[in-house]
Sequence to fold (562 residues):
Amino acid sequence: MNRREGEGCPRRNADAVQDRDASANPSSPVIAAFKVFQQELDTKHDKYERLVKISRDVTIESKRTIFLLHRVTSVPNAEDILNEADVKLDAVRQKIGQIAEELRGEDIFQFHRAFTAGIQEYVEAVSFLHYIRHRSLISLEEINARLVFMTTEKGSAEALQPGGQVLTFQVTPSDYLLGVADLTGELMRMCISSVGNGDIDTPFQLSQFLRQIHDGFSYIGNTGPYEVSKKLHTLRQSLGKVEDACYALRVRGSEIPKHMLADVFSSRTTLLDPEEGVV
Amino acid sequence: MNRREGEGCPRRNADAVQDRDASANPSSPVIAAFKVFQQELDTKHDKYERLVKISRDVTIESKRTIFLLHRVTSVPNAEDILNEADVKLDAVRQKIGQIAEELRGEDIFQFHRAFTAGIQEYVEAVSFLHYIRHRSLISLEEINARLVFMTTEKLDPKGSAEALQPGGQVLTFQVTPSDYLLGVADLTGELMRMCISSVGNGDIDTPFQLSQFLRQIHDGFSYIGNTGPYEVSKKLHTLRQSLGKVEDACYALRVRGSEIPKHMLADVFSSRTTLLDPEEGVV
Fold:
């Protein structure tokens, strides 16, 4: 936010004598033009600020949904938790509808940095829920299909009212990628906790799933957004932890009683941390 | 935000066989205790988040007030701008009243980091306005005296209302001394800008007043040295640079002022400050 007046531009002050009357006169065309600029910029900054606030709400609610979803491994009745998570994610979608409303008629890439964090967290949460239900990766089209908002005169309703508008929010491919990269960290946590609860099938499924995601990211390499390389490094560590869990179960599983397995993992992951990343 | 369940604590899982019934039973005392913790922490985090949002509004409005105040040097009628700035700062005080309402009954130092940026910007704005009017530094007591809010039964916080309503409560917001210090340090940067722009507008008295004023503030900060908050040392460095720029402006005016016509002075400063930037900081 730079100062717009009196910055001491050499060319301007060489005409200072002639301009002094103009700068004292608030209706000169220069001052009037700057007032218009000021209003435009203030409006833009205010919109950016509103988007940041909504995005923070989206981030917090998505994170709480993810914490909720982590509990499915330790509770016998997973359906309640999944339904509760659905409700929470619907609330998050309402917030994303507000983002879409703010962006109506705007260049979304001017405001992208305001809401990108929230959208990545949302992608992480909704793909985590999808994986728990279907053991597969949700696609970008499926995510975007649920971010359709009907605006009627009274607000968002499901019936298509005559005169109602359809507002969609398109998650960009880069946000989708980064959200999926964060998902892998959550899947790794789910794997370790499911082992601690005695579930010895999930780690192997997760190991294959994460391996496929890792291969996909390796195809992208360094052609994607710059955050991808950092997340690829974290992804390799997560994949390593999951594969170590599978190794401990398969090779050493016969030696160790189930309720001691979590002890093995807590000590192994702390010992192996400096060496992970070499796949 | 760490996961609270199933983290794999060795001692807990050694009793996993006995506990398996307990973990499946949602009314076990352990689960119940954790639910209470969850609600407490969620409430605290939600309050922190609301404070961050209010603080961002305070910061933005204070910054806009400062931009407004910078225009007093280029406009003949300063009173309009000062009154407009007063109105804006009253709006900022309303927001600070909301912060005070959120902090009612809480340990303010648990939430201090949420609102400290906004309060520093507010201190910067209100001390800038005070300097333009009175050519002196506003004191912490004066700042706190204006942050008194009356809450009546209608829950209408009135900023600095003078009548005391029966049954109304008085809510005060105390700016901490460290926030005051850091706000004053930021003020010096704005004063340096005001000095350069006033020279560009032909005012040759302000730089000398500012030079003395900033020198006194700098001496005060040097007394504090490294005993204050850790941000003070970084701001002290910036303060030295600002002081250097102001003193260079005074030098150019006094020693070389007779050589240069007024409307060329600003050119001299634009070129001089860019040349001298790497050397500043050596006072």
Remarks:
- Chain A touches chain B at residues 1, 3, 5-10, 13-14, 16-17, 23-24, 42, 45, 49, 52-53, 56-57, 60, 63-64, 67, 70-71, 73-76, 189, 192-193, 196-198, 258-260, 262-263, 265-266 (CB under 8 Å).
